[in-house]
Amino acid sequence: MIGSSPRLDLLIVGAVPPEVDPLKGWLSSAERIETEWTPCWLGGFGRLKVGLASLGIGKVNAAAGSAFLIGRFRPTMVWIVGSAGAYALGPLEIGDVLVSSTVFLGDEGVWEKEGLRSMEAVGIPVAEERGRAVFERVVLEGDELFERLVRVTPPGLYVADSPSEHMPRALPYPETTGMVEGSVKPRPKPFRVLVGPSVTVSLSSGDEWVAKERFSRYDAWAEEMEGSAVIQVCRRFGVSVAQCRGISNRAGVRDKSLWRMHEALAHCHAVVGSWLCAFHENP
After folding, report:
1. In terms of Cα–Cα distance, which of 211, 157, 165 is closest to 189?
2. Structural domain boundaries of the chain?
3. What is the pLDDT of residues 23-63, one digit of tens each?
4. Residues 6+ apart with CB under 8 A from 87
5. Which listed residue, 8, 41, 156, 278, has the most CB atoms within 10 A of its CB?
6. Residue 89 backbone class (left: φ over 0; alpha: ψ -120 to 50; beta: rest)
7. Where is the Nucleoside phosphorylase domain (predicted)?
8. 59-114 tens-digit pLDDT
9. 36 CA to centre of own chain
10. What is the pLDDT of residues 223-241, one digit of tens each?
């Protein structure tokens, strides 16, 4: 029954289970709830009531799934987590983490031989925010949630370290327990957290030419397939939202033997771990 569903402080969503399943071990009294859309794990993180769910890949799954879960669990905020492909001409390297400041609505609008034009060419906005029509991008920078999370993990060099057995955090390099003189613990590989634009696409870049064209068109640093859809739903519901993506590959490179998905998600989850700890300590 919808009326009996607990209200969440935080809903964390990804596209596929590997993007959210590792976080289940962070929650106390975690319980699997079957819903009409997708299984959802509910549990506690200190004083926070947290839900985890994989919505499915792509904009339709992302929009419908997030709308359903927001309607049912009424979270105060939603965090989008997962992986992304970085454009070679941008500043991101594989293993870095991107906190999205702006998300472009990729592949939406008018396609002409000269290139892609935004929904402004159609003349119909996808939404209205802060008294302005939204045609091509949703802006997270300036939101209270965005600014708070960026204060927790500002742009810089980090390592993913685990002060506890199951809870990774992003710690400023080299301020980590893994770098104590004489310690046998291996040194964690450092990675960067950057804040900047991403683009949500309907079609992944299939080669380097397409990736270069997309970078030129949107001036975004990375591409993913769900972000703008979830953000638009959250804005309609009045729910705060943020996006954190680990970089697993170069956009346009389809040879998955070159992808580093595990590393990308581990670093993304470490950043999310730091965010959770900050909200637990100061809700």
Report:
1. 157
2. 82-281
3. 999 999 999 999 999 999 999 999 999 999 999 999 999 99
4. 211, 212, 214, 215, 220, 221, 222, 223, 250, 251
5. 8
6. alpha
7. 10-266
8. 999 999 999 999 999 999 999 999 999 999 999 999 999 999 999 999 998 988 88
9. 23
10. 999 999 999 999 999 999 9
CA-closest candidate to residue 222, choices 90, 125, 111, 107: 90
Q: At what angle do helices 59-73 and 227-237 cross, to 10 degrees?
A: 30
283 has a pLDDT exceeding 80:
no
Identity of the amino acid at 278: A
174: cis peptide before it, omega within 30°?
A: yes
Closest CA to 244 of 52, 21, 54, 84: 84
**Tokens 């581990």, residue located:** 266
CB 76 within 8 A of CB 239: yes
Which CATH fold would you assign to the domain 82-281?
Answer: Rossmann fold (3.40.50)
**Measured at the alpha carbon of residue 89, what is the angle toward residues 171 and 160, in degrees to the nearest 5?**
15
Between strands 77-86 and 97-105, the pairing is unpaired
CA distances for 206 relative to 69, 201, 213, 258, angstroms: 32, 12, 11, 14
The residue whose two tokens read 């209205």 is 128
